[in-house]
Amino acid sequence: GAGVSQSPSNKVTEKGKDVELRCDPISGHTALYWYRQSLGQGLEFLIYFQGNSAPDKSGLPSDRFSAERTGGSVSTLTIQRTQQEDSAVYLCASSRDSMNTEAFFGQGTRLTVV
Amino acid sequence: AQTVTQSQPEMSVQEAETVTLSCTYDTSESDYYLFWYKQPPSRQMILVIRQEAYKQQNATENRFSVNFQKAAKSFSLKISDSQLGDAAMYFCAYRSTIIQGAQKLVFGQGTRLTINP
User: Fold this and answer.
1) Rounded CA gap, B116 and A9, in Å?
2) Measured distance CA(A49)–CA(B98) in Å, rounded
3) Residue of A87, A91, B80, B113 with fewest CB within 10 Å of its CB?
């Protein structure tokens, strides 16, 4: 596609429910990143995928968070048993490969846990 | 671990004037990349300018330029002839050049820039 696409744009969920956030990277980009941006804060790294290599999960804040990338393209970030502190904007980015320094970002999913 | 600090939560400037946003970082690496990203209300992060640490020459992109002081670990962004469309959150970011497990961007807390007409 023309750019990184994320869905949904906004999501309101009840505490304790599971949510799935989707990221569709730019076609041909092998590197994909998820970041979390809490209100008024900078971006916090969550997870990184590069081709068929094992993902770098070092930024996932708890075992309630998981992500997968099917077929080296679309990625899904899943948050189980959501908590109010999970409320944030979740941003996805992709780059042509791991050595390419320019990352292109989507418009994010604003998650609100009530 | 690398850290990035932006000490100015908010800045404002008159339209057509020049403004400088500050950024400092901490790293033990000698080669790395530094970036400034702009985030308008649409939430999409847009790359403004990039600097490779091994390059002594400061990067420039039209009205945007940086002052990269490697020894001081300082990386400020200068916006000349400010325009209303420059109003946004600006984030400074660091990226390692080490291949293994360091592809992520490390971001500062951001500076909200307001342009006064």
Assistant:
1) 30
2) 16
3) B80
